[in-house]
Amino acid sequence: MIALTERTLSGWGGYQPLSCSVAEPSSRGQLRRILDSQVEHPHVLARGLGRSYGDSAVCRGGTVLLQGNADRILSFDRATGLVRCEAGVTLADLIQVCLPRGWFLPTTPGTKFVTVGGAIAADVHGKNHHVDGTFGRWIRRLTLLLADGSERVCGPDQDGDLFWATVGGMGLTGYIVEAEIQMRPCTTAYFRVDYRRHRNLDATLAAMEETDSDYRYSVGWIDCLARGRHLGRSVLMLGNDARAEDLSAQQADHPFTVAPKNRKSVPIYFPNMALNRLSVSLFNEVYFAAHPDRSSIVDFDTYFYPLDSIHHWNRIYGRRGFVQYQALFPPGTAEKGLRAVLETLGRFGLASFLAVIKRSGPANPAPLSYLYPGYTLALDIPNVGERMLEMVRQLDKILLHEGGRLYLAKDSLMSEDTFRAMYPRRDEFLAVKRRVDPGNRFVSEQARRVGLIVTS
Amino acid sequence: MNRTYIILGAASGIAKAVSRSLASRGHDLILAGRSQEELNLLAKDLETRHQVQARILVFDASCRAEVTGLLEASTRLNDAQLVDGVILAYGVMFPQPETEANLDLLALTLEVNLVSSVLVLQAFANAFVTRGRGVIVGISSVAGDRGRGSNYHYGCSKAGLSAFLDGLRHRLHDKGVHVCTVKPGFVATPMTDGLVNPNSPLCARPDQVARDILRAIDRKTGRIYTLWVWRWIMMIIRSVPEFLFLRTKL
Ligand SMILES: Cc1cc2nc3c(=O)[nH]c(=O)nc-3n(C[C@H](O)[C@H](O)[C@H](O)COP(=O)(O)OP(=O)(O)OC[C@H]3O[C@@H](n4cnc5c(N)ncnc54)[C@H](O)[C@@H]3O)c2cc1C
Ligand SMILES: NC(=O)c1ccc[n+]([C@@H]2O[C@H](COP(=O)([O-])OP(=O)(O)OC[C@H]3O[C@@H](n4cnc5c(N)ncnc54)[C@H](OP(=O)(O)O)[C@@H]3O)[C@@H](O)[C@H]2O)c1
Q: How far apart are CA A406 and CA A404, in angstroms?
């Protein structure tokens, strides 16, 4: 018998926590026994490190399965860069094992504290999407446990429908047990980064379009409090893999070793609204001023994971939490759509420290994968209650009007109608789910909210 | 120096953390335990992460024949001087009302935590003495320090184990063999899942316990409490006079 504990769970945004039954299987056998007992566990959901922002990894009335013990890296071939591991392994673990042997993640989100399972389920993307696509593109094989307890192996060339529905499928097709990931060769742990400031939105978008082909990694920070002719002013951070000859003599001695960062922690929740407009605008001024145009060699931690050095940074938004809002627009309407979003933010005066803009590349075969070619903007919005909800409703309208799309891994509020309009391939996904999980054994609060469930 | 440790109960929460710490120092491992599937997964992980050798040995401590098999295997390992240290990390703990009502379960507790443990450690001790070196780490428990009404079945198995380890250390301290008794308080592992709040300041993470055990091996410490506060907590619990103790609910 496995112990079930009641725990209050939310996503990383801390928005509307809910009480759930949680179990942490101690072995593969115990996991199988849970999935075999349909009566005791009618609904189940895998949870990684809870870095999705909303209710993707939360499930009331079901058993939320933690993966702390599914953290084993089973093989790594340093000649080919193929790694096989359990789904609870974190990207930080993969870096630790593979980087010293000359291989890096094929793509990575803005935090290394996510699991392989979570990265596949959300089909995450990084700064190199326009070149390397999403995480799912680098998965060669998955081992799943399905709703009936059976084990199934799939890959791009083996039951491709199930494979691509699982990539981006937010844990709703089955439980990912193991994955095989193709890592990418690298010669150092460093990146050559050019910082470029741009004075407004037009300049930012033009620069991204123009320079993206010169850089493997490209991302921008947008000052979302700038108004008028400065609307959309930004700092672009454009990077390429550093070669050995780019490094200083000291770095070149140990090209794959980066001194661990001093980790700070936010020990308590900030009082609600410590983050007011004033503090954010101060932050933004300082940030903008601190990033004159320059080039430098930075280590992977500094370039990819600036926030990871501050433990629990989500607490600065206070106990009421915040929501993330990631908006994607196709190239044709991006300028108009982004402008409308930034103007709406300005009108509501809801401050966001972290507004990140990125140009996306081609989509992949996964029916629920988020990105298609265009521009995406990710915002943190503090939960101030009704005013936040009203703003999000207005932002949703802009997106629907301009053919935009929201990201499931970041979403806390999307309605079923909005989801249907934004994800036209929903039915393809549900056809696979009907085949492998007709009874909706795998379900999350988000799936219930946006209607990612099979109906008879 | 590269050594080989055998971990008995290698799939336990504490053992996993200990194995990783040992492997990260480059030591080879023999993982012994009940589930071949789990041991295989653990062995592959240690080999991949730390590039050490990890072999597996399947046995069930509740089955005397299999314990005998383990003893034979350990003799062979010792004859070939393949093992430098042994870490005993298996154990069971049932809710006491169950062992009160079901004496088979009580017998199982004693068989696993005490009888098999003592037999296996004695076999390794014999071999280590002949060689004049070796490390024996036994994971006992604070529960063995004083019998308490709510948990004295598990407690007496651990008290027996602690006494065995005390005696072994006494006999071997000048024979080059280091014997260490580890007394964890609460540790967040499957054994305490749902029983103990893992965020309590009295509850250790397995990696904290592993760190304390490795430090004890390095310094050849005889007895450790982990977390360290348990030394003081148990000192108080042991020193409460019986007439007062009987009135407490512990
Ligand atoms: C600071 C920060 C920066 C981020 N930056 C980016 C970014 O740049 N790009 C990006 O794409 N995302 C980004 N994200 C989002 C994050 O990468 C995703 O939400 C990711 O899914 C989180 O992984 P997790 O392990 O925490 O999973 P969780 O949040 O716990 O779960 C996410 C989903 O994965 C499913 N899941 C987890 N494990 C399994 C399994 N074994 N089998 C089946 N389903 C499973 C869950 O059911 C759930 O639906 C960021 C998040 C943070 C906090
Ligand atoms: N957790 C605590 O708070 C705490 C406190 C004090 C002392 N301890 C002691 O620490 C040690 C490690 O426990 P843990 O906390 O890490 O718990 P755990 O994860 O539950 O580990 C117990 C291990 O014992 C193994 N085991 C049980 N019966 C067995 C048998 N018949 N034959 C072989 N192996 C058997 C189990 O094997 P399977 O994996 O095959 O089930 C499991 O790996 C135990 O001796 C325990 O008494 C723990």
A: 7
Instruction: Give the closest-approach CA distance of A441 to chain B in angstroms.
Output: 24
Dihedral of CA atoms A392, A397, A400, A402 in degrees, nearest 10, equals -110
- B interface mutation test: which of A33, A73, A101, A312 has the most B CBs within 10 A? A73
The per-residue pLDDT for range A11-26, each reduced to its tens digit, is 999 999 999 999 999 9
Tokens encoding A265? 């922690």
B5, B90, B154, B225: the catalytic one is B154
Q: What angle do CA A112, B13, B204 make, to 5 degrees?
A: 80
Residue B52's closest CA among B31, B73, B38, B35? Answer: B31
**Interface ipTM:** 0.94
Question: Is CATH 3.30.70.2520 what the domain over A190-413 is classified as, yes or no?
Answer: yes
CATH architecture of the domain formed by A73-186: 2-Layer Sandwich (3.30)
With CA atoms as reference, report the closest residue to A117 among A81, A77, A157, A72. A72
Active site residue B154: yes
Q: B4-245 in CATH: which number?
A: 3.40.50.720
When pLDDT is averaged across residues B82-110 and rounded to a whole number, the result is 97
Residues A72, A101: Cα–Cα separation, whole Å: 18
Whole-angstrom distance, CA of residue B45 vs CA of residue A72:
5
Q: Which residue has the tokens 């008879």?
A: A456
pLDDT at A260: 76
The pLDDT score that the predictor gives to residue A282 is: 78
- Bridge partners (DSSP) listed for residue A9: A18
The secondary structure of A153-203 as a DSSP string is: EEBTTBSHHHHHHHTTSTT-S-EEEEEEEE-EE-S-SEEEEEEEEESSHHH
* Chosen from A8, A69, A89, A96 to mutate, greatest number of chain B CBs within 10 A: A69
Could you tell me the residue ranges of all domains in chain A? 73-186, 190-413
Which pLDDT belongs to residue B79? 83
Instruction: Let me know: does B139 contact B14? Beta carbons within 8 Å.
Output: yes
Q: How confident is the model at residue B78 (pLDDT cuts 50, 70, 90)?
A: confident
The domains of chain B are located at: 4-245
What is the mean pLDDT of the segment spanning A330-355?
90
Calculate Rg over the CA atoms of chain B: 18
What are A8's two structure tokens? 């209050």
Q: What is the residue whose two structure tokens read 């184990």?
A: B161
Q: Give the burial string for A157-186 (b: 16+ CB within 10 Å, else e).
A: eebebbbbbbbbbbbbbbbbbbbbbebbeb
Q: Under DSSP, is residue A279 helix (H, G, I), strand (E, B) or coil? A: helix
* Ligand nearest the Cα atom of residue B145: 2
pLDDT tens digits for range A175-194: 999 999 999 999 999 999 99
* Separation CA A344–CA A281 (nearest Å): 16
Tokens of A374: 């265009």
How much of chain B is in helix, strand and coil states, percent to nearest 5?
Answer: 55, 15, 30
Integer Cα distance of B142 and B184 in angstroms: 6
pLDDT score at A273: 54
Chain A residues touching residue B44 (CB < 8 angstroms): 72-75
pTM over the 0.90 mark: yes
Q: What is the mean pLDDT of residues A121-137?
A: 97
